[in-house]
Write a structure and sequence with these properties.
Blueprint: H1 9-23, H2 32-48, E1 53-58, E2 74-75, E3 82-91, H3 93-97, E4 104-111, E5 123-129, H4 143-154, E6 162-166, H5 172-181, E7 184-188, H6 192-200, E8 208-214, H7 215-228, E9 231-236, H8 241-249, H9 260-263, E10 270-275, E11 286-287, E12 291-300, E13 305-314, H10 315-318
Parallel strand pairs: 1-3, 6-7, 6-8
Antiparallel strand pairs: 1-2, 3-4, 4-10, 5-8, 5-9, 10-12, 11-12, 12-13
Amino acid sequence: MLSPNKNLSLDLVRITEAAALASGRWLGKGDTDSGDGAAVDAMRIGFNALNIQGTVIIGEGEKDNAPMLYNGEKVGTGEGPALDIAVDPVEGTRLLAYGRPNAISVVGACPAGCMYNPGPSFYMEKLVVPPEAKNVADIDAPVDENLRNIANALGKDVDDLVVFVLDKPRHEKLIMAVREAGARIQLHSDGDVSGALMAVDPRSGVDVMMGIGGTPEGVLAACAIKGIGGQMFARLAPQSFVEKEALEKAGVDAREILTVDALIKSDDVFFAATGISGGGFLRGVEYTGDGAVTHSMVIRGKTGSLRYIESIQKWEKLMKFSEVKYD
């Protein structure tokens, strides 16, 4: 079996750029389906030109009539390395539809058989920290203890810390505990992957992510976290009886603590993300009339490289060969 022998994240970023360019036209128009559909179509076209044998492990559910990249779908030309693929063409569809910040397009990849398959799990508890704090954080520790230890590892006071939390009713007690500990909070309505990325991105103002979010999003974010060298501690957290029962039937131990090494079992991991709606994390698509500017981050786990890429696209040349109609 072939193994990746180049930085595939530089190929994957072309796919996330295409998805961002196509979906960015739907910013603030209140239509979640059209923006997501445009990103999916552009992403699929991009994968079709990539020399890989890819299988989507993290996609958008079972195949139906919707234009989605679904779990189990084969992508790529069928030649080259065999890879597990994680995608979210628009992470934050409501953020895009309502013109809110931090909607992004995301792709992760690693050698076949190395990506955690969430199966019937939809939600997991997560604690994400940068490299400096990976040996002091504990998902079972009280919030105030975790924040003190993380602050010490980062050379900060607790009241210097910024904690990313999804603004959901299930986090009412968590938010109160973070405030009582003295840390600051960024509350976000959506953007599970973005929050995890912010916690390990040295350029962001976020120091840690806490709370319950999507399991597929956790696996996708783990591609980036493993590449950068940060850590995610996670545990499945079913939010309904149906989900809990499905996990029990599948023989899944929901008490197990998962780390990035359990979620992604290879250092040869690749990740790319491109901003769509903009914000404090990645700037969004900027249309210029005769083209557009995109802003992305790409990560290669094998070398630990993290790149920020600004790309300038010109419609006159791009449209001569692109199957995607961006303008």
